[in-house]
Amino acid sequence: MNTPSLGAPTDDTPISPLAALGIAVLAISTSAILVRWSSAPSLIKAFYRVAFTVGLLAPVALARYRDALSTFSRRDLVAATGAGVALAAHFASWFESLNHTTVAASVTLVQSQPLFVAVGAWALLDERVGRRTAAGIAVALVGMVLMSVSDLLAPSSAPRPLFGNALAVVGAVTAAAYVLTGRSVRSRVSLVPYVVVVYSVCAATLLVVAVGNGDPLTGYPLREWVLFLAMAVGPGIFGHTVINWALAHLESSVVSVSLLGEPLGSTILALFLFGEIPTVPLVAGGAIVLFGIYVTAS
């Protein structure tokens, strides 16, 4: 998910942007693993991941970007609110998908959000879709269909793979909505103020839905709180925030293609940690999806 960079690139950056990008991809590859390890309700996991991320970023925003936070226009606040609601739907649907399908299928399908960004930009913003982009979308859709029916070809150990895969696709669509809704704001607002506002709305939305669903907010063992914090620090701060920093120093196509490493990293971790061995149709469908995303994003 692309958000604004922390600032303009400089030649004296003390950290190699490529090295930072590699660390970020490794960090986000742990996201599905941490979610799967937690036994808390999906909405609770999503809420605390976002809430802890806000808690970690808010002091930076208040110290360095107080003026930017106080000068949000009404238009930008409306757009950021919409982006926050869309992001809440993304987290809720994707976290829940991991309860029903394999890590490999869930992460690959949710990573398809660039396809829906391209389609949404064409349908809603009248942006032109070139032949290469259209071909990439078509290829990826073929792979997504194959992944969705892979359990019919070679049953996996997942309890409800079709339902879980559908939720992951919903997660991709809502992630695309998050990107499209906040696109205009991101050209005017720095990363940290934007993220704090959007994540605050996201956390509030998840909190309301979780309470309405009857999910308890407290009473979890220490292990769960450690996992909640790890989700915020690892995939949240060292993952997506570093990726947004890298966008100020690297071509966006390099960053987009690098993110295709997340499904691979998550699948390998799930293989060793959970014993999840992807079926041949799932691997084939996933490879087709990733190739389609590569064609679309590069």
UniProtKB/TrEMBL annotation:
> Is Transmembrane one of the keywords?
yes
Q: Where is the EamA domain?
A: 23-148, 163-296
Q: Does the keyword Transmembrane apply?
A: yes
Q: Which GO terms describe its cellular component?
A: membrane
- The residue ranges crossing the membrane are 15-34, 46-65, 101-125, 137-156, 162-180, 192-213, 225-247, 254-274, 280-297
Quote the InterPro entries the UniProt record gives.
EamA_dom, EmrE-like
UniProt keyword list: Membrane, Transmembrane, Transmembrane helix
Q: Which domain of life is it from?
A: Archaea
- Could you tell me what this protein is called? Transporter of the drug/metabolite transporter (DMT) superfamily protein
Identify the species of origin. Answer: Haloferax elongans ATCC BAA-1513
Which lineage?
Archaea, Methanobacteriati, Methanobacteriota, Stenosarchaea group, Halobacteria
